[in-house]
Amino acid sequence: xxxSAEQESRIQANIRAIQKLNNSSLSDAEIRQxxxxxxxxxxxxxNTIRLPLFVDSGVNIHFGKHDFINVGVTLVDLGxxxxxxxxxxxxxxxILTVNHPLDPQIRQAGDLELHAVHLKDNCWIGAGATIxxxxxxxxxxxxxxxxxxxxxxxxxxxxxxxxxxxxxxx
Length: 170
Known about the structure:
Belongs to the transferase hexapeptide repeat family. The chain has 170 residues and is an alpha/beta fold. The protein has a single domain (5-169), classed as Hexapeptide repeat proteins (UDP N-Acetylglucosamine Acyltransferase, domain 1). 21% of the residues lie in helices and 28% in strands. It contains 3 helices and 18 strands. The strands form 4 sheets. A 7-stranded mixed β-sheet has the order 1-4-7-12-15-17-18. Helix 1 (5-22) runs antiparallel to helix 2. The chain is globular, with a radius of gyration of 16 Å. The N and C termini lie far apart (39 Å).
């Protein structure tokens, strides 16, 4: 899939809007209001989002309720990011929904592979963790700090490492 001119334009506009948001001094309610305009969807008042935050398209982010997004989080959302309720995302975590094809000719042509990420209720993404495209993190699951998650995480599992592997269940 290649980005349309409209998608590219929206990404550029959202980059500017996020830069402005990140350089402002706003209350939690004002942050939610500004980010709601960027993602074109209301953000529930129970959610807390700490700045700076980095997004590309923005319109493919879907928050639940009582979600907490800490400082420096990156949401590459072209493929869709779906938050359950009470999701915790620690500082500097990265959630990616875009990949490039392995075939060099297709990659050179600018095609992208988009795969949604689902963060189920009450999961916790640790500091500096990376969630790769297409992953579902299960209900009550924990992703340890610095982990790189390339496969689905079962409900109630704790994963750690590069690549992330189940180390126990809670």
